[in-house]
Design a protein that fits this description.
The complex is a heterodimer of chains A (255) and B (237).
Chain A lengths: L2 H11 L2 H20 L3 H30 L1 H8 L5 H32 L2 H27 L3 H29 L6 H9 L2 H10 L10 H10 L2 H27 L4
Helix pairs in contact in A: 1-5, 2-3, 2-5, 3-5, 3-6, 3-7, 3-9, 5-6, 5-11, 6-7, 6-9, 6-11, 8-10, 9-11
Chain B lengths: L1 E10 L2 E11 L4 E5 L6 H8 L7 E6 L2 E2 L10 E4 L11 H11 L9 H5 L15 H14 L4 E5 L7 H15 L4 E5 L12 E6 L2 E7 H8 L4 H11 L4
Parallel strand pairs in B: 3-8, 3-9, 6-7, 7-8
Antiparallel strand pairs in B: 1-2, 1-4, 4-5, 9-10
The chains are: A mainly alpha (255), B alpha/beta (237).
């Protein structure tokens, strides 16, 4: 890690918000996982918490942080520092600090109370969602020059992936219920990192039997080893592509 | 030392730099003047790579600035309004910059001493007054003993005493075969500081000439008088 990334990382850790985030995650995860005697139920509640809180905190905190570092970026730009290095440092610092908060807050209790492959899955999904929504934040911040606009945009992105997308999907499914849509639904799932994460975990649980025929198609694909690998690759692409696109934009921006 | 080749920059529909071509050499101390919004700050920011021109090339020491960022080691930049991380202290910012440019062996601490920044080194930058922030900007610009100094409104906001300290410093640097680029609206204080005048209007360089030539053509010894003669006349020639 370079000097600037280290500086950003330490600066974020000094921010009490990240500490509160870690503490809240810890309280929620340990209470949910310790109180449920049925570990499958605990994992399900944990999943919902992670899918709701991690993307929201990652995208909003990162967007605000980037706007607040405008001065810092400006100072570095007049120095012999590449723009790529500045942007990369912001991404490294943010994603590392937020991932650390997640690992300390939720990861530890996941390993302690769940422990098996399922716990590990949730652990990695939490980290991947942190990276994905941090890179979305970079994209929002580079797009909108105005801080209020940028934060609004990031809230919209979060709302879209956690609420609207599912609504549109269900609407579409009802409209075209006459047609065999199972394979298409598979593709649409890959296009939303939150849905993809949810289904990945659900299929490891017995509750997936309740999901009917669509679930059988999902299970056939996502339940297989190849499917799991493809899903994780898709999740990795979900932070790599937005990050590099934001870098491309940042390199051409007037500051 | 710095060369502009047909540089064009638009902000939306507004053309800020209209095909700028010019050359500035070491040893020159240039006053960059012109009305508000004529493109002075954009010109300066494009040298630093903060603003990206739409077309044309900028060369520093014959190297295209898009190719490598190393040229910025030779530049000391003092912005019009210095903006710094609010919760860093003066000492932290200076230490961070030193570590970023660690190859620099000859640091110039003169301004740190004359501005007495050591006394307030632990203050956070967010709590400083506008004038003190300007002092920090000045210190950073001169710290690495750069061969090119770009000073955007250097004395704006400084008290008379500090302003005098900075002027003396610029005068000493002027003697040292450096390229100094100063923008200012206070034409009276530029008289001793500069050797050349670059006058910009509507995104173009109206004229770029030595102080002696400008004085001869306008028959005015003072820059402020000379400029008003040129403006009344409507053209430089």
């Amino acid at each position: 890690m370079n000097r600037i990334a280290r500086f950003v990382f330490v600066d974020i850790l000094k921010n009490s918000f990240v500490i509160i985030y870690a503490v809240i995650l810890f309280l929620l995860s340990s209470s949910v996982l310790a109180l449920e005697d049925n570990s499958s139920k605990g994992v399900l509640s944990m999943l919902n918490i992670i899918l709701l809180i991690v993307p929201l905190v990652s995208i909003i905190f990162s967007t605000i942080y980037i706007y607040n570092s405008a001065e810092f970026v400006e100072l570095l730009l007049s120095q012999p520092v590449k723009r790529t290095v500045i942007w990369r440092s912001l991404f490294y610092g943010l994603s590392l600090a937020l991932s650390l908060a997640f690992v300390l807050g939720a990861g530890v209790s996941l390993i302690l109370f769940v422990g098996d492959l399922l716990g590990l899955f949730l652990f990695f999904i939490g980290i991947l969602l942190t990276l994905i929504f941090t890179s979305f934040a970079l994209l929002c911040a580079v797009w909108a020059k105005d801080k209020a606009k940028g934060i609004g945009l990031s809230i919209l992105v979060w709302l879209f992936f956690s609420l609207f997308y599912d609504g549109l999907l269900v609407f579409g499914m009802f409209q075209f219920s006459e047609y065999p849509l199972e394979k298409l639904m598979m593709v649409f799932t890959l296009l939303n990192p939150i849905d993809l994460s949810r289904i990945l975990i659900l299929l490891q649980l017995d509750v997936s039997a309740l999901l009917g025929y669509t679930s059988a198609v999902f299970k056939e694909f996502l339940g297989s080893q190849l499917g799991i690998i493809i899903s994780f690759v898709a999740l990795v692409l979900w932070f790599v592509i937005p990050y590099f696109y934001s870098l491309y934009k940042f390199n051409r921006k007037d500051l | 030392m710095i060369e502009f080749r047909n540089v064009v920059k638009n902000f939306g529909k507004l053309e800020v730099l209209k095909n700028i071509s010019t050359r500035m050499e070491a040893g020159q101390s240039i006053a960059l003047i012109g009305p508000n919004g004529c493109g002075k700050t954009t010109l300066i920011k494009s040298i630093l790579g903060m603003v990206k021109p739409h077309s044309g090339q900028i060369l520093v020491n014959e190297n295209d600035i898009e190719q490598s960022i190393d040229y910025r080691r030779q530049i000391g930049y003092m912005p019009q309004i210095g903006r710094y991380p609010q919760n860093m202290t003066i000492a932290q910012v200076i230490d961070m910059l030193k570590s970023l440019r660690q190859d620099q062996s000859t640091l110039d601490h003169e301004l740190v001493e004359s501005f007495k920044l050591a006394d307030i080194a632990d203050k956070k930058l967010g709590t400083l007054s506008g004038g003190t922030t300007q002092k920090v900007s000045a210190v950073i610009a001169f710290l690495f003993n750069p061969s090119i100094l770009i000073l955007d409104e250097p004395t704006a906001g400084l008290d008379p005493l500090s302003s005098e300290i900075l002027r003396d410093k610029i005068l000493r640097e002027k003697a040292g075969n450096k390229l100094i680029l100063i923008t200012s609206h206070l034409l009276n204080e530029l008289d001793e500081l500069v050797s050349h005048i670059m006058y910009m209007q509507d995104g173009r360089i109206s004229f770029f000439d030595t102080l002696e030539n400008v004085a001869r053509k306008t028959e005015q010894a003072k820059i402020s008088k000379a400029i008003s003669v040129i403006l009344k006349r409507g053209s430089y020639e």
